């Protein structure tokens, strides 16, 4: 099973940037839950915690495409150094505000600043696309990245919960901050595997010319994000109501362990079924799995059922990444994947906001029901867009030089008539 992973990890620099990318992505798994716990402990309110987390995730989603374009245009090193400094400043302000019980609006501001992190989840995926040529190898690399994400989601929430509830409320945020700084320092030192900046190749950004498949999987990611956003805060509340609040991070970790196993098994096999069909099946499995979790009667069964449901997460996200990789040019890969993170982030923000209010007024069961509704929404959206996903992925992206030149000429003609705003107007 490990042979495909061993093959790609033997490439020069692959192990180094994979490890550094894993460490630098700590905020993806820990920052949201750490903020929820810190604010809930300090202010004794799930509603405030849900609102603050929602604002942060929403800002994170909105910044993803502009910062991804910046990374593609000027390079990872030049773009990520100032973005890392921005995160450190915002996270530090959030800690100070929460510990002094400052006004909620200042928490919003601090978390919003900290959420301008750049496209953390796309940096190493862009490096894999830069190094690898075959779709099968890229499928394996993306599955590896998805599984590494789940390593973070296994350890991150559990560690954040233990640190916040037993040691010091903002300690999870401090660990996020430290991991990002160390990981980014190591990653940005790996110059040999960094994709060339677009300004040096004459390439163009996607702008508003998004392939239909990218739009489709971004909407599917929105539903998945709503499911995740509602689920995280609902698990904390469910465990709290059961008298086992310190187990909430462990429960999320068990679910992520299921995703890790599912992702590794999925990535080790080279599938013959078409990508569009796997995308639809993944969304259906995710909706069924998290729908069942809303019916779990206690913490133990929630954990056991969660491991099985979690096995659908990494394969589904791997399919979404693969759709983008299949339909955009290599020098647009970071920007293309950023649209998935926008969908995911806006969904997480909405899910956390809605679930926080429901939990405060009704209870944790209502929050789990909101999570199940998000999973169902992702399946409905997948069904709505599966036709265009099938069309675009079967067409693929141009690979021969003549096709690339024709595509470039078409893009240049479009750029003469389409003014590119810094942020798409519909965001």
Automatic annotation (TrEMBL):
TM annotation in the entry: 16-39, 45-66, 78-99, 171-189, 210-230, 250-268, 275-293, 299-317, 338-356, 368-389
Q: Which UniProt keywords apply?
A: Membrane, Transmembrane, Transmembrane helix
Topology in membrane: Multi-pass membrane protein
Which superkingdom heads the taxonomic lineage of this protein's source? Bacteria
Q: Where in the cell is it found?
A: Cell membrane
Which residue windows does the record flag with biased composition (Acidic residues)? 402-418
Output the Gene Ontology cellular-component terms: plasma membrane
Molecular function terms from GO:
transmembrane transporter activity
Question: Does rRNA-binding appear among the keywords?
Answer: no
- Keyword Transmembrane recorded: yes
Question: What are the start and end residues of every segment in region (Disordered)?
Answer: 396-427
Ranges for domain Major facilitator superfamily (MFS) profile come to: 209-427
Quote the PANTHER family the UniProt record gives: MAJOR FACILITATOR SUPERFAMILY (MFS) PROFILE DOMAIN-CONTAINING PROTEIN (PTHR23542:SF1), PTHR23542
Report the protein name in the record. Answer: MFS transporter
- Per the UniProt record, the source organism is Demequina lignilytica
